[in-house]
Amino acid sequence: MKKNKKNEDSTLEPDIPYDGDTNVKKKQSLSDKVTIMKNQVRDFLLDHPKTNFVCSNAWILLLSLISAFIFAYGFLAFTNPLRVPFTSILENPDSLSQLKIAYSAATATDVTKIDNSVLKSWYNSLDYNTALSIVGKHSLVSGGASGFSQVVTRILSFTGMFKAGSGIEENTIISILYIAINIPFLILAWTKIGKKFTIYTLLNIGFSSMFLKIIPASWCEITNIYTDYLARALAGGICTGLGTGVAFAVGSSTGAVDIISLFFAEKKSTSVGKYSMVLNTITVLTYTLLHFILSPSDVIPAEFQNDLAGAAWNQGVHQTTMALYTIVYFFVGAKLLDLINIKNKKVELQVFTADPNMAKVLISGFPHACTLVSGIGGFTGTPRHIIYMVVSKSELNRAIKVMREADPNCFVSVLSTYQVYGKFYIKPLD
Q: Is the dihedral of CA 132, 138, 139, 141 positive or negative?
């Protein structure tokens, strides 16, 4: 009986058992064939620098598009709706009354004889500015550059820029300001964080600005939670946190506040969400204050205002309520961001090993220092090397793999770390 030859390349074709009586190879299972094909595809992509570069950047580009769409949709659907849905107007007697009066004036129809289906059709045919001037809207205050854009746009609105017939849409100005405000922050990212990060951030900003402009209003009305402010705050926070978290995961950001937050988070070795929460809160307080100081004449037509000063105060009071919901929105977004972005989360490794070179292996592979302590195994009585090292959570799996390869019998304990003080990053050993 001939001896079975082992396959020389086990990565491409794993050993297949032989039948003891017939020396015939057993049929490959479907899982074996899939594994072989996956290995071949992976090796082809990784072994060729050009294909590796294209595939990695294509993946980053795809995730950046997804991140930008989620962020922009959350802003337009929940934070700053493009248009008040007609179903929400029906639930608000004041808005419905204002709409009927406007329709009556435009068509010379008796207010008492206006049918809701006809009213809906007329309302949906109005341009953005006209619809906004009739029923108004109340927005959550977005964070980051979009939040700054809202503040600036709010100031510009008191000049009469967005009145009906002006031909200038508020969201068009917001999308332009979104890019302009990001310019100084991009310069900071280029000089202090990294060129690659800046390029990806610029792409994300461009995608977000594009989606802010092209996402149709009909897509944003399908949720129908305009009057449920808490639901809008939760949904908007989830969209913002998810979009920003995905951007950070691929080495990018949504710009502005995210860049500042990341800069300080890496400098202080803490979470990004904490700084994002503080900066965004300043934005919402500024936006709310503007509603008390300035007249809402751009929102409520004069014929519907008995007392402009009283209307301004009522606008401010209502926006204060919206500000409280916005805080919920920021909180949800910050928590979800920190949940997804694990780079700035730290863990402490306690390694017990008999390998005297384990510390050098770790320092050469990771930009962090470590501390060595000599010990003795309580059960075996043999000498042990105890290593204390802090790494980011994103490095944890790779660190454990490196240690297990160096010493398969090592014992590793992983502890969560709230805060790190001192120099976290060092130059790795050659």
A: positive
Beta strands 370-376; 383-392: pairing state = antiparallel
- Phi first, then psi: give them for residue 294, nearest 5 degrees: -110, 150
Question: Among 32-46, 71-85, 370-384, whose mean pLDDT is lowest?
Answer: 32-46
90 or 396, greater pLDDT: 396
β strands within 290-360, DSSP E: 346-353
Average pLDDT of 116-143? 71
All structural domains of the chain with their residue ranges: 54-83+137-340, 346-417
Q: What is the CATH number of domain 346-417?
A: 3.30.70.120
Is residue 386 classed as helix, strand or coil in its secondary structure?
strand
When computed from its CA atoms, the radius of gyration of the chain, rounded to whole angstroms, is 30
Q: What is the pLDDT of residues 332-383, one digit of tens each?
A: 888 888 888 777 778 889 999 988 888 888 888 888 888 889 888 888 888 8
CA–CA distance, 362 with 166 (Å, rounded to integer): 64
Task: Find out whether 362 and 371 touch, Cβ atoms under 8 Å.
Answer: no
Q: What does the DSSP 8-state code read for residue 349?
A: E
Q: And the tokens for 50?
A: 């050009």
Widest Cα–Cα separation across the chain: 105
Q: pLDDT (tens digit, 9 = 90+) per residue, 378-430?
A: 888 888 889 999 888 878 888 888 898 888 888 999 988 877 777 777 765 55
Cβ-contact 144, 255 below 8 angstroms: yes
Q: Which of 327, 187, 195, 185 is nearest to 258 (CA)?
A: 185
**2/255 Cα distance (integer angstroms):** 68
The answer to whether the beta carbons of residues 341 and 248 sit under 8 Å apart is yes
Nearest to 74 by CA among 177, 208, 204, 182: 208
Query: Among 260, 418, 423, which Cα is nearest to 346's?
Result: 418
Residue 114, token pair as written in the block: 């206006």
State the Cα angle at 257 between 282 and 419, rounded to 5°. Answer: 90
